[in-house]
Amino acid sequence: MTWLSERFELSHGDGAQPLRPMEGLRGLAVLLVFLVHYTTLAAPWLDGASLSALLARLLHLAGNSGVDLFFVLSGYLIYGSLIARRQAFLPFMRRRLMRIYPTYGAVFLLYLALSLAVPAESKIPPAAVDATRYLLHNLLLLAPLLGEAPLITVSWSLSYELFYYLATPLLIAAFGLRRRRRRWRVAFLFAVAGAIVAGYLAFGVPLRSLMFVAGALLHEARGHRRDLGGRRRPPGEAVTLAALAGALVLLMLPLAAPLKIVVLAAALYRLCLCCFERAQGRLARVFCFAPLRWLGNMSYSYYLLHGLLLKAALAALARLPQPEPGPLLFWGMLPLLLAVTLAGAAALFLLVERPLSLAPRRASFLASQA
Predict the structure, then answer these.
(1) Residues in contact with 273: Cβ distance below 8 Å, sequence separation at least 6, in sequence order
(2) For 10-69, how does the pLDDT look when each residue is reduced to its tens digit (9 = 90+)?
(3) Stated pTM of the model
């Protein structure tokens, strides 16, 4: 445990304590993303009418909220850091790009090498000009925005993140949000949310951008509680869990997409607020569980690499004598393949992400914003 703590622990000392539930929430988010891909790739092992197949579909549905949770946490941290103090735009963007690109670049090169080694599985167009354009779009995280299938499937979310990094400091500066009262900022954020919904209905603007707004509102809600001196009771854990369950039920119903996303954003907002404000509560303590936090600390490496590792492991299994498909195989392989993806992602974290993107001063800065 000491060896693991030295390598995967990013919170140190009392000043970093508020960050601990956030790390665990990231761990939950990346586990949910894993479940989406595992249940998709291993679905042929199950009879579509079986109870296990139904449970797998429910896990897939719940897993889709993993990226949304990442967006809420990112919205909270980035908006909070920019509201707290004035930051020059270019240095801010340089820090954000240094957070994204070392790890992304390493995985990008790995995908490129595998595309050349296994042309049958490659997404790269055969023509040299088209291939160059496609790779450039992917390197700049533009492929999803241009309607192209990204080389790294999950990198579509990085395009959302990058747009948020660009837009947030510009909006804060353009509308003078730092000098506005909190109520004015909250009203502004709700107006942005309304604009996103209207843009979705009129032009197909990505609805999941609402999750970033939920994160920004989370920062304002915590600031409001501090203004009141903690006199308002923090959100109840039972109600929070009921809200999450209700949101997942609504996701299964044939309702309008904006309603589903708004409800999910509200439920994730409440989950985060409950964990942050009830630091000694049972729910927060769950997300302070060290292995879950360590997974959250390496969640970016895991997020980028787990899909490739999962496909490689399943391809290797296909070359072995095949056991009988069924629930036993499906559920039995889940922890084994999770362990495989964890091992590979941990190597990427230790070799690339931590030394190049997670300097100690950055961990201290994030802790101060939580």
Answers:
(1) 218, 221, 222, 234, 235
(2) 865 434 445 789 999 999 999 999 999 999 999 999 987 789 999 999 999 999 999 999
(3) 0.92
How many H helices and E strands in the chain?
A: 17, 0
Kindly provide the residue ranges of all beta strands, DSSP E only, lying in the chain, ordered along the sequence.
none
pLDDT tens, 255-301? 889 999 999 999 999 999 999 998 889 999 999 999 999 999 999 99
**Range 252-255, long-range pairs (CB < 8 A, 24+ positions):** 252/61
Cβ atoms within 10 Å, residue 215? 27
Q: How far apart are CA 158 and CA 161, in angstroms?
A: 5
C-alpha–C-alpha distance, residues 187 and 196, integer Å: 14
Q: Which residues contact 271 (CB under 8 A, 6 or more apart)?
A: 25, 69, 240, 243, 244, 283
Residue spans per domain, the chain: 2-369
Task: Report which residue type is found at 236.
Answer: G
How far is 274 from 278, CA to CA, in rounded Å?
Answer: 6
CA distance 145 to 155: 11
- Rounded to 5°, the CA angle 217-273-365 comes to 75
**Alpha carbon 35 to chain centroid distance?**
13
